[in-house]
Design goal:
heterodimer, A: 486 residues, alpha/beta, Rossmann fold, Fumarate Reductase Iron-sulfur Protein, Chain B, domain 2, four-stranded antiparallel β-sheet, globular, B: 167 residues, alpha+beta, two-stranded antiparallel sheet, two-stranded antiparallel ribbon, 28% helix, elongated, binds iron/sulfur cluster
Chain lengths: 486, 167
């Protein structure tokens, strides 16, 4: 038993995946307009390479990464750029953000990407990283961190160990499960490309114990590839097993330092979807212009997983699912524990859209009246980050920055476990989410006060020294010439 | 790594361990140090002292009240009251208004004549420039004390909202 299993934390909760995994992956309907937000990945927004009225072909690069952390964007269809303007975006909770709007001409004329198809074993690891960047590949687990940036920052001497995350993060989301079932070979291909790009000695594909079909498919693909570097590790389906730090603890029995990155302990974590996207880019020349989106919940008639082109409106996906049911009450992007509520469905699918939940009252956790904390300790038993949520909550009223920092508020991964088990129905995560920026600001203020004090004292000292020197010189001048100097 | 440093520094500050930069050998933490650790270090002199440190020393020897620091606002006044064991009270009106946004100085560079007066006024060395050349404020170092504004002969210094801290 590993330390992680002993210390536990986390919850076994109903996965709610059966509804969406009944049917195989289907292609989402094509629409007339695709909206591609420029800032849909972590880091800096991409810089447009096209202007309104330009014709674009399918898979053509339409925006290039800004210097630093950023990613390429490609046209999901052929047609005409009709605008580059702010449009509401789901990752901004519905706030407008600069986007390229493409009118689909329905012809799917391909951009000549033949040069993109490379035999990855013949290029150097550095070139492989660069090549992955040009495919617009970002982490498909939810954070949309540009993959090439992650690879570059993880390069280490003997090569980090690669961990492919096939453990679905949250209830309801099943896009990774169906991907592993149906496209296991893509995943293994992508894994080998990543091994090459990272000079990594081995790759572990982590998969949960409650998805036997996906396990079987993956096993078969791994056997077929006959690559001794790739192995499969089955992990218990304990939410949040798919959290990066939690998964690393389970698989490698090692803890990522709270202020560090997995790379610090020689591990790079990638989502299985990302590996499959890399395979499509390297093998078929298809950049990241589509992804699998789970549409589920009691609020849609027929749940399913859809191969969806980036920029497709949520409303079109909902229509593909037969529309809303009368019970529909809330739209959520992401899973039921950490997803964000959205007020309407006229929002484009972005690279980070793994799941859309049309939730009815049945899906939502009923939230009763908030009561005082009874110090039952349930929350600290389930916290996967090993925090003490009840203490954190205590120090929120009144806000005590010192204690919050000491109790690790900033290490909270906002998983919602504490909230889920709290018998007093305290909306713990919500409060933590709100408090984090306040605390960050307070820590920053203390830091700059510290720097200001140092500069103030240094200046005073300098002024005093200059003053003393000046006085000494004056005294020297005033002294009569004949007087002997002592 | 940076977060670690931040946390350590801040924890030290919060615990009242004012690691004063000029202090060479480790020395006893005085009451003035602990008061100073609670002050915002704006160095604006609105408290009527020559900066935060002198104000802290004045409080420590009982020569000043705890409600004289407008940049610190209610929070600082409360923290000081807690430390000194007196009743908290709001910041005195005579010391100025409590600002609701952090601000930093900005020099309109076309108008600057390079007189260096603002450099001499800045208590935290946040202005760079040379005689008869354009001057500029290092926004990250500016505490928003406004001491540079009155000396400027051409009134080219304005206060602007502080830029968001990049993380
Ligand atoms: S939301 Fe934060 S505090 Fe609550 S269980 Fe998850 S990590 Fe712990
Ligand atoms: S679970 Fe709720 S009631 Fe129990 S200790 Fe935590 S916050 Fe308090
Ligand atoms: S009023 Fe200004 S100088 Fe005085 S303590 Fe407050 S910030 Fe420091
Ligand atoms: S630049 Fe002006 S406002 Fe900013 S710290 Fe210096 S004197 Fe104060």
């Amino acid at each position: 038993m590993t330390a992680r299993e002993l210390l536990a934390g986390g919850l076994r909760i109903e996965a709610h995946k059966q509804r969406s995994t009944k049917a195989p992956i289907r292609a989402a309907s094509l629409v007339e307009r695709y909206v591609i937000p420029l800032d849909q990945h972590s880091g800096l927004p991409a810089v447009p390479l096209v202007k309104p009225a330009d014709r674009v072909r399918m898979w053509q690069p339409i925006a290039q990464p800004a210097p630093g952390i950023s990613a390429w964007l490609h046209a999901p269809v052929s047609g005409e750029v009709i605008a580059i303007e702010p449009r509401p975006a789901p990752h901004r909770m519905g706030a407008p953000t600069l986007s390229i709007v493409i009118a689909n001409d329905g012809r799917d004329e391909r951009f000549d990407n033949a040069a993109a198809i490379v035999s990855f074993e013949q290029i150097s690891p550095n070139e492989a990283c660069e090549h992955i960047a040009r495919g617009g590949i970002v982490g498909l687990g939810g954070a949309a961190f540009p993959t090439a940036n992650k690879l570059e920052s993880s390069l280490c001497e003997n090569g980090p160990q690669l961990l492919l995350n096939g453990a679905e993060c949250e209830p309801y989301i099943s896009c990774d499960e169906v991907l592993m079932r149906e496209r296991a070979e893509d995943i293994v291909f992508g894994a080998r490309a990543l091994l090459h790009a990272l000079c990594s000695p081995n790759c572990t594909i982590a998969i949960e114990d409650d998805v036997p079909e996906a396990q079987a498919a993956l096993r078969q693909a791994v056997d077929k590839a006959a690559d001794p570097r790739v192995r499969i590790k089955v992990v218990p389906a304990i939410y949040p097993a798919g959290g990066e730090r939690q998964l690393i603890a389970t698989v490698f029995d090692a803890e990522v330092p709270h202020d560090g990155l997995p790379a610090d302990i020689g591990v790079v974590c990638q989502n299985v979807g990302t590996a499959a996207a890399i395979a499509r880019w390297i093998r078929d020349g298809q950049p990241l212009v589509s992804r699998i989106v789970t549409v589920t919940g009691d609020g849609v008639r027929e749940a399913g997983n859809w191969e969806t082109r980036i920029g497709t409106p949520f409303s079109s996906l909902i229509a593909d699912c037969g529309g809303y049911t009368e019970r529909m009450s809330r739209l959520i992007m992401g899973g039921s524990m950490m997803g964000t509520s959205l007020s309407h469905d006229d929002l484009p699918v972005v690279k980070a859209t793994n799941c859309i939940i049309a939730a009815s009252a049945l899906d939502l956790q009923p939230r009763g009246l908030e009561m005082p904390c009874i110090r039952c300790g349930n929350c600290s038993q389930v916290c996967p980050a090993f925090l003490l949520p009840q203490q954190l909550h205590w120090y929120l009223q009144p806000f005590d920055g010192g204690q919050l920092a000491r109790h690790g508020l900033l290490d909270c991964i906002e998983c919602g476990c504490c909230d889920y088990v709290c018998p007093s129905q305290i909306p713990l995560v919500e409060r933590f989410r709100e408090a984090k920026p306040l605390l960050t600001r307070e820590l920053d203020a203390h830091l700059s006060a510290h720097a200001a004090r140092a500069r103030f004292l240094a200046r005073n000292e300098r002024l005093a020294r200059l003053e003393a020197e000046h006085r000494a010189k004056l005294a020297e001048k005033r002294r009569p010439k004949n007087e002997p100097t002592s | 790594m940076i977060t670690a440093l931040v946390t350590i520094v801040v924890l030290a500050a919060l615990a009242g361990v004012a690691s004063v930069a000029t202090a060479g050998a480790p020395r006893e933490i005085s009451l003035a140090d602990r008061i100073d650790a609670l002050l915002p270090q704006t160095q604006c002199r609105r408290c009527t002292f020559e900066g935060c440190r002198p104000y802290a020393e004045a409080i420590a020897r009982g020569a000043a009240d705890i409600n004289q620091c407008p940049p610190g606002g209610e929070r600082t006044a409360k923290a000081l009251a807690g430390l000194m064991g007196v009743e908290p009270k709001p910041v005195g009106k005579e010391f100025g208004v409590v600002p609701d946004h952090p601000a930093v100085a900005f020099i309109e560079e076309d108008a600057c004549i390079g007189c260096t007066k603002c450099i001499q006024a800045c208590p935290v060395d946040a202005i760079v420039g040379a005689s008869r050349h354009m001057h500029t404020v290092i926004a990250a170092d500016c505490t928003g004390c406004e001491l540079c504004i009155p000396p400027c002969p051409v009134d080219c210094i304005v206060m602007r909202p502080a830029p968001a801290v990049a993380r």
